[in-house]
Amino acid sequence: MYQLLDFNTKDVVTTDDFVFAGETSPWEVQMDIEHIRRKINLDYFVSAAPCLSKYLPLMPIQEPANFVSLRESATPLVKSKVLGKELGIDLYFKVEGKNPTGSFKDRGSAVDISIAKELGAKGVILASTGNMAASCSCYAAAAKMPCFIVVPEGVSMSKLAQVISFGGKIIQVKGSYNDAANLAYKIAKSRKFFLAGDYAFRVEGQKTGAFEVIDQLLFQVPDEVIIPVGCGTNITAYAKGFAEYKDLGLIHKIPRLVGVQSTGACSLVNAFDKKAKHLEPLERADTIATAIAVPFPIDGDKAIDAIYQTGGEASAVSDTDMLKAQYYLSTQEGLFVESASAATVAHLFKKKEQGLIKPGQRVVCVLSGEGLKDPSVVLKSAIQPPIIYPNEKDFDKLYDSNFFDNKTMVFVEKDQVLFRDMPNPTQTKEALENLFGANYNDDLIAKVQSCIERFLAKGRAIHISDLQDIVQDAMEMVDITRSDILKVVSFKVTTGQDKIAEAEVTVELNGQLYYASNKGVGPVDAIIQALCKACPSEIQYQLTDYKVQIRGQGADAVVYVEMKLIKGSQNSVGKAVSPDIIQASVEAFIDAYNIAHPV
Ligand SMILES: *Cc1c(COP(=O)(O)O)cnc(C)c1O
Question: Can you give the pTM of this predicted structure?
Answer without folding.
Answer: 0.83
